[in-house]
Amino acid sequence: MKKNLLYIRKTLYDEKETPVKLIGVLLVLVGWLLPVLTLVSVQSTGARLFLSLLGIAISLAGIFGVLNKAHLKDAVWKKA
Amino acid sequence: MKSGESLKRYLSAVAILLVLCGLPAWAQTAAPAAAAPAAAAPPPAPGPAMDVPLNVKAAQPPSTDDLAKGDPGGTKTGTVNDVVPADATKGVTLADAVNQAGQNRVAINFVWTLVTGFLVMFMQAGFAIVETGLCRAKNANHTMMMNFMVYGFGLFAYWVCGFALQMGGVAPSGTLGGAYPLNHEYALPLLGKTWGLFGMHGFFLSGASYDVAVMVLFLFQMVFMDTALTIVTGAAAERWKYAAFAISSVFLGAITYPVFANWAWGGGWLSQLGANFNLGHGYCDFAGSGVVHAVGGMTALAVSMIVGPRIGKYTRNGTPNAMPGHDIVIVLTGCFILAFGWFGFNPGSTLAASGNGALRIGSIAVNTMLAGCTGSFGALLYMWMRYGKPDASMTGNGLLAGLVAITAPSGFVSTVGSVIIGFVAGLLVCVSVELVERVLKVDDPVGAISVHGTNGLWGVISVGLFADGTSNYGGSWNGVAGSVTGLFYGGGAGQLVAQFIGVGTLLGFVFALSYMGNWVIDIIVGQRSSAADELEGLDIPEMGALCYPEFVLKPDAFGSGSVKAA
Fold first, then answer.
1. What is the pLDDT of residues B482-533, one digit of tens each?
2. pLDDT of the residue at B290
3. Of B144, B493, B104, B429, which is closest to residue B293 (Cα–Cα)?
4. Which chain B residue lies closest to A10 (C-alpha atoms)?
5. Could you read off the pLDDT of B152-192 as tens digits, one per residue?
6. Numbered residues of chain B with Cβ closer than 8 Å to any chain A Cβ
């Protein structure tokens, strides 16, 4: 139990990239919510198509541009 | 006297014929009329009395003496003799015959759904040996045990709450006799619309959910959910701590998968995009390119990012090293098992073999075959042209990619559409594997992110492009009348937008939820095994036994084992 708690503390304290990862997750969620929440106000199919593609692009940017980069900063092969 | 008896016999025969051909439909449509207000209801049409015993002899059933002679042609077996009367003393009545016809239809659908579910369950064996074969020998026991126990972890989580969250508000499910106990969907009123979020009935399959139709639905949906879970074990293989794998699998089976599956299949908001926002028929995913494969693929991506690449996968400058699997024989055998199981996956998703346009199962099965075939063509051609050799494991992945991609559109497209969808998937899986490995530097030993994630999304999009408008599952889909029609067949862009919103939800919601859940697991128990364990191979440190104990594992540059007979 003590060992586990120590692990939790160590993980949280050592995690320099935590704020960046949280921003990444936020960006991913924004990409999803943008086209969904505008469904009510935007009636044109063309505009909805554009917004859904924009949302996908934002989510992909969050996943690969922010989250994955944050993980790669601490990648195991960079320490070898 | 004699002519009167003949007339009576003739009328009885006609009555039995009517019952067997179409009176169940008459009986079903008559019921709502009876429930309408008395003033508005038209007088009931005179019909045959339901409780009067029928003159079964008029149907000229074979006698026991006839049957004792044998029935090699199959013309005497299954007659009015086999209709079971409710009251044996009274004999067979019209009501008995009508009830029997209705039960026969549901029975056909039950058996079809169960047998196809059994096929899908066997896909677990296919996934297990594909993933194990693509890993190194020193991790074979660990990889196999993840695939073995993911079935149990997933099943238990799904029984506790996953099924209820997914299907708790799906009733009525016409093909299985209703499944009426599953009749409560939690819906959020927001922005003037109702957004179905999750089901509320069916926890522990207890109470009113102790119902035959619910059990059939549970079995079929459970094996689908478990397919999603087993995708992740491949992507995170060779460095995933077993305890973390167990918790992560329970989370996926209990929460992540059921919530998205409810939105797509359980009457949730994605399925209502057509009815609420005039976007085609709403999000359409016939057998689960998105619900099953992309959910598994998105979770695989999240977990792979969190656990990081295997030691030795990348050099210090980030160049990837090839880490080939240890047994291509079991990899390709596993691909065949999966292709076989897919005949349960896609045609079984009609949940019926009788009524409601379910005879399209033949077309769905052929589409499935063709897309798998052209998927392997696409991957084989790509690898042959790019690297000069037809790579075996990528050809196998091409087959699976084609099958994954056709899963969503299989019930809506023609054979030409399925050939194109499969071929594109075969090319896409090769490009995606290279992108994930070389550009994104996410280590995925079996290519699960590309096979299931990338091609799951492609399958979802392809519905909005290739649905040909010929399917007719009871006249409507997701509550919108007519047939699902994509952009290339004159359906406009509405259906495509609904599919893109589904893709956005998979990327934006499912990935985010999986990432957050697995991040918490990483903080609490740690997702990655120690470097020493990884270098030794996870069989001994994690499982306590080697998969191939009589073989000598010879360490190579990455500490990995190439197998030699002792």
1. 999 999 999 999 999 999 999 999 999 999 999 999 999 999 999 999 999 9
2. 98
3. B429
4. B523
5. 999 999 999 999 999 999 988 889 998 999 999 999 999 88
6. 191-193, 273, 277, 279, 301, 305-306, 308-309, 311, 313-316, 318, 440-442, 492-494, 496-497, 500-501, 503-505, 507-509, 511-512, 515-516, 519, 522-526, 531
Alpha-carbon torsion, ordered B21, B23, B25, B27, to 10 deg: -170
B95 has a pLDDT exceeding 50: yes
- Both tokens of B555, joined, read 């360490």
B494 to chain A: nearest residue by CA? A45
ipTM higher than the 0.95 cut: no
Question: What pTM was computed for the model?
Answer: 0.88
Residue B118 CA, distance from chain mean position: 12
Round to whole Å and give the CA distance between B564 and B550.
Answer: 9
How large is the greatest C-alpha to C-alpha distance in chain B, in angstroms? 103
Using CA atoms, how far apart are residues B432 and B500, in angstroms rounded to an integer? Answer: 19
Residue B187 host element (H or E): strand B185-190
Q: Which of A37, A49, A60 sits opposite B493 (nearest CB)?
A: A49
Query: Which ranges of B23-134 does DSSP label H, i.e. alpha helix?
Result: 23-35, 64-68, 94-134
Closest CA to B462 of B430, B502, B509, B511: B502
Q: Give phi and psi for B155, each to the nearest 5.
A: -60, -45
Q: Is B193 in contact with A52 (Cβ distance < 8 A)?
A: no
Burial class (CB in 10 A: 0-12, 13-18, 19+), B521: buried
- Six token digits for residue B361: 């199962």
